[in-house]
Amino acid sequence: xxxxxxxxxxxxxxxxxxxxxxxxxxxxxxxxxxxxxxxxxxxxxxxxxxxxxxxxxxxxxxxxxxxxxxxxxxxxxxxxxxxxxxxxxxxxxxxxxxxxxxxxxxxxxxxxxxxxxxxxxxxxxxxxxxxxxxxxxxxxxxxxxxxxxxxxxxxxxxxxxxxxx
Length: 165
Prior knowledge:
This protein is an alpha+beta fold. The chain contains six helices and four strands. The protein has three domains: 1-34; 40-130, Arc Repressor Mutant, subunit A (Orthogonal Bundle); 132-165. 64% of the residues lie in helices and 13% in strands.
C-alpha cells in the first residue's frame, strides 16, 4: 500500500508523501460533506475553531499556540483567525499583563457548534480507524508523528540557513 513498482527500475518505490497527500485530500472532502450546514468555509477554519474551543476549556490560548499546533506561519494563522473573528466565532481579548498579547476566546456562536464539531470528529476518526487493529493504529500514529518531527527539524534547519545568508 505504501509502495509501488516504478517502471524505470522495477523496484518498489516508497511514495509515502503522495499517499499522505491523497489521504489528506480525501479527509478534507469527507469533512466538508459533514459540515455543509455551517458557515466555516475551509477545513483549516474548522480545525482551528475546534482547537480553540477545546483548548480554551483548559486555559488561555493565543495565536502563537495555533501557529505551533498546526505548524503554520503567522500570516496563515492571522488570516484564519481574522475570518473566525469576522464570522463571530471568536473574540480577541487583551491580556492584563501584556496589552500587545490577545487571547482567543470562543463566542456563544462557537460554543453552539461545539457538539456538532465533536460529533464530526468522532465520525471521521471512527471511519479512518474502521477495520484497523488498535496496535496498528498506535504504530501508524507513532510513524506519522516521527515523520512530522523530521519535516519540522528540516524546515528549521532550512530557515537557519536562509537567515545566515
